[in-house]
Amino acid sequence: MFDILIRGGRVVDGTGGPSQKADVAVKGGRIAEVGNLPGAESRLAIDAEGKVVAPGFIDIHSHNELYVIRDDYRELFESYLRQGITTCVVSNCGWSLAPWPREHGDLFRSTLHSMGVSGRFQPEWETQEEFMEWLRKRGLPVNFVPLSAHGPIRIAVMGSQARFCTPEELEKMKGLVRRDMEAGCRGFSTGLTYFPGMYAHTDEIVELARVSREYGGRYVTHVRSLTDTFDRAVEEAVEIAERSGSSLQISHFMCVPNLGRAADLVYAAVDVLEKIN
C-alpha cells in the first residue's frame, strides 16, 4: 500500500533523458516506484492525465532566509510552491541572518534593515548551527540550501572597518567560514559591490573560498562591478575560483549601461564558466 499514487502523467525525471508516460508511487515521503503500476493501491490517488510530473524545481539564487522570519512567511512562499519550486539556495550575495555578530549587532541590524528586515527584530541565534535549528523548528514551506555569507563574517571580525584585513583577522574569518560549513552550508557567497565586501582584497576572498572548497563548497558571487568594468569583475571571480580550487557561480549578468555589447560579455562569461566548472 502506497501513500500517494500519481497516475498517467508524463514524467520528466531531471536526468536529461526523454519524458515518459508513467505512474509515480510515494511512500513515507519518498518516491518508491516509477513505471506502469496498474494494480497498485494507495491511500491517495491523483489523476495526472495530460499533465507533467517532475521533481521540484530549485531556485539557485534567493534571499528567502530574510523573509522566513516574517509572520506571514507561509503566504509569501505559496507562490514558490504554485510554480513547482521546492528548494531555494539562500544567503546569496554575501548576506545572511547568520552568524549574528553580537559585538557589532547594531551595525549588522542596521545593514539588514536596508534589506527589509525590521530594525526591531531580535534573533534567537548567534551561530549558523543555531540558526538552522531555529529554521527546523519554524517549519519551512520549501527546502533551504544555505551558503556561508561573507558579509556577517567580515562584520563579526572587523565591524565597519573600510580596509584590507590583517593576517590575524583573516584567520578569524576562516574559522567562521569553517564553522558555517560544518553546520551544513554548501558554499561561500560574496557581494563585492556591497558593504562590507567592497573593502575585501581578492586574496581575502580566495582564502575564505578555499575553506569552503575543503567541504566541497562552490564559490557564488555578486561580482565587484556590473557596468563598465564587468569583464574585469568576471576575471576576478575566475581568479578566485581557480586559486581556491572552487567551482564558480556568477549571480547576475546586468551589463548596464553597455547594453549594446551585453551579448558579447555574457557569451564570453558563460564560456569562461564552462571551462572553470
What is this entry, summarized?
The chain is α/β, with parallel strands linked by helices and 277 residues long.
The CATH architecture name of the largest domain reads Alpha-Beta Barrel
What would the CATH topology of the largest domain be?
TIM Barrel
Sequence stretches where pLDDT stays below 50 over 5 or more residues = none
Largest sheet: 5 strands, mixed
User: Which outline best applies?
Assistant: globular
Strand content is 15-25%
CA radius of gyration is 22 Å
Q: Portion of residues in helices?
A: 25-40%
Number of contiguous helices: 8
Q: Give the overall pLDDT as a whole number.
A: 92
Along the chain, the helix and strand elements come as EEEEEEHEHHEEHHEHEHEH
The number of distinct β-strands equals 12
The chain-level structural class is alpha/beta
Oligomer: single chain
CATH class descriptor of the largest domain:
Alpha Beta
CATH homologous superfamily heading of the largest domain: Metal-dependent hydrolases
Domain tally:
2
Distance between the termini: 43 Å
Give the SSE map:
Blueprint: E1 2-11, E2 20-27, E3 30-35, E4 42-47, E5 52-53, E6 57-59, H1 73-82, E7 85-90, H2 105-113, H3 128-138, E8 143-146, E9 148-149, H4 150-158, H5 167-183, E10 187-191, H6 202-214, E11 218-222, H7 230-244, E12 248-250, H8 262-276
Parallel strand pairs: 1-4, 1-5, 6-7, 7-8, 9-10, 10-11, 11-12
Antiparallel strand pairs: 1-2, 2-3
